[in-house]
Amino acid sequence: MSRTISQAVLPIQRAIATANPSAWWDGLVIGSSGAEVTVAHLDGSVSRLRVVGPAVELVAGEPVAYHPVAEILDTSRLATTARISA
Questions:
Q1: Alpha carbon separation from 69 to 8, 10, 13, 18 (Å, rounded)
Q2: How much is the pTM?
Q3: Which residues are CB-neighbours of 51 under 8 A, at least 6 positions away?
């Protein structure tokens, strides 16, 4: 998966992600409802993410990467801001 970050995220988020390249969590979408996305990460953990940046339609099985420090959700089409839901 490309780590090319689009203009949909803030410059500080891009700087944080670039400074911490090993922090990305790769995974697959297992559910999507409105602004919430559930991702099964390759390490076996599962995260519920709330997309707060530009919306992107995600379908089950789609590969994504999440940077928890920079709060970036990277898809094959767009990078957007997302936060872990409580």
A1: 16, 13, 8, 11
A2: 0.86
A3: 35, 36, 37, 73, 80, 81, 82
- Amino acid, res. 4: T
Domains of the chain by residue range: 11-84
Burial of 7 (0-12, 13-18, 19+ CB in 10 A): exposed
CATH class, range 11-84: mainly beta
Q: What is the pLDDT of residues 12-65, one digit of tens each?
A: 999 999 999 999 999 999 999 888 999 999 999 999 999 987 777 899 999 999
Check if the beta carbon of residue 9 is closer than 8 Å to that of residue 53. Answer: yes
Q: Is 80 exposed, middle or buried (0-12, 13-18, 19+ CB in 10 A)?
A: buried
